[in-house]
Design a protein that fits this description.
heterodimer, A: 120 residues, mainly beta, four-stranded antiparallel beta sheet, B: mainly beta, five-stranded antiparallel beta sheet, globular
Chain lengths: 120, 114
């Protein structure tokens, strides 16, 4: 299956600083990527849909000015947590679908390994 | 919007027993239902999926059944092994032109005891 990577795998930052997380599709071009947040022992909650070359679509309740998404190329989407606070500490995971699989009507989403953010 | 409920939240079985996890969805237009396995601190891994034009799908010890009328689908794991221990998530989406978002269930923590 397709491979999605994330960087960094973990990050610790001070309250008030900004953190950028990268999501890359390694062997395919992804016009659409998804960003999820997962708190401990909870489910994956979709934050936003990242569209290459256009603005991201945010889910209800997610502050677009706090969670900046940039999908500047077909293989890279970035999530920047601005002015991070301890309550933003979470596991952030991206996913993407391989458009080559559209021909086979497969809807599989491939997930990145996740980034654990800890805000002190 | 779509809402997916998942039960039970935890499930403990003895090695060799079967495990069943159930999910219900609210949007009758949903037509794609994947199941993911997530080990602690790792990414979700797709283990099986089913589309609405199929009632059952099986892959070795894993099977998924779908009842469109009742809007529920289930994951069945037979001959469970300790390495099956993980958190399992069901999800639903409306697959059509373009990439549709997945809505996840709340997860089931499966513990298989030797």
């Amino acid at each position: 299956g397709a491979v999605v990577s994330q960087h960094p795998s973990w990050v610790i930052c001070k309250s008030g600083t900004s953190v950028k997380i990268e999501c890359r599709s390694l062997d395919f071009q992804a016009t659409t990527m998804f960003w999820y947040r997962q708190f401990p022992k909870q489910s994956l909650m979709l934050m936003a849909t990242s569209n290459e070359g256009s603005k991201a679509t945010y889910e209800q309740g997610v502050e677009k000015d706090k969670f900046l998404i940039n999908h500047a190329s077909l293989t890279l989407s970035t999530l920047t947590v601005t002015s991070a606070h301890p309550e933003d500490s979470s596991f952030y995971i991206c996913s993407a679908r391989d458009p080559r699989e559209r021909e086979t009507s497969t809807d599989t989403q491939y997930f990145g390994p996740g980034t654990r953010l800890t805000v002190l | 919007g779509e809402n997916v409920e998942q039960h039970p939240s935890t499930l403990s079985v003895q090695e060799g027993d079967s495990a069943v996890i159930k999910c219900t969805y609210s949007d009758s237009a949903s037509n794609y239902f994947p199941w993911y396995k997530q080990e602690l601190g790792k990414r979700p891994q797709l283990i099986i999926d089913i589309r609405s034009n199929v009632g059952e799908k099986k892959d070795q010890r894993i099977a998924v059944t779908l009842n469109k009328t009742a809007k529920h689908f289930s994951l069945h794991i037979t001959e469970t092994q300790p390495e099956d221990s993980a958190v399992y998530f069901c999800a639903a989406s409306k697959s059509r032109r373009g990439f549709q978002k997945l809505v996840f269930g709340t997860g089931t923590r499966l513990l298989v005891s030797p």
